[in-house]
UniProtKB/TrEMBL annotation:
Key words, A-Z: Signal
UniProt name for this protein: Trypsin inhibitor
Signal peptide positions (record): 1-21
Pfam annotation, one family: Kunitz_legume
Keyword presence, RNA-binding: no
A Gene Ontology molecular function term of the record: endopeptidase inhibitor activity
InterPro entries: Kunitz_inhibitor_STI-like_sf, Prot_inh_Kunz-lg
Amino acid sequence: MNPMFYFLLALTAVLAATANAGPVVDIDGDIIFHGSYYVIPVIRGPEGGGLTLTTRNGNQCPLFIGQERSEVERGIPVKFSNWRSRVGFVPESENLNIKMDIEPTFCAQSTYWWVTTAPSPWRSAFIAVGPKPEAGGEDSSRSFFQIKKTEAKLNAYKFVFCRDGNDCIDVGKNEEGGVRGLVLGSRPPFATPFEVVFVKATGSETSSKTMSII
């Protein structure tokens, strides 16, 4: 059969898979293919700095996704992985895993994002870190997030969590017990929106990150 037929068939499959999944871009408008990126609030100043890892309620473990209080602190960069479409870039509006780009040295856990169980019906579920998700593993759906565009600013995004691919909930932030961190939901008074831009991290910056910052 004509080789062109197979080429067109493959091209059609790629276009179909990416019809609703444009590439995520960084603050400079460059497409994100791989590497580490700082997650920085769109609005600088009182909104705080980048993401970090933090504890809650005086317990050393588990660790949660927190936010630096100072706008000059970029925190810990993240990496994206495990999206289903076979595109080389990080796609919008598609389930993927997010990992804090730092080597774990305690708590015996990796640093992939996971949605925890809400402490009570009237409180938000926190975003914690946990083991690398296993395909088809128990509760692995709690480790998949999506990146969606916002209208706040050019090249600005938000994270969302879509249970079973539907009923998406924005990832927001709140402050509880003196700890500022990421939660499910973005509606006051329980949480506020968390709209961000991505800033590329250099290799030397990521190699210097250790858990000792906690």
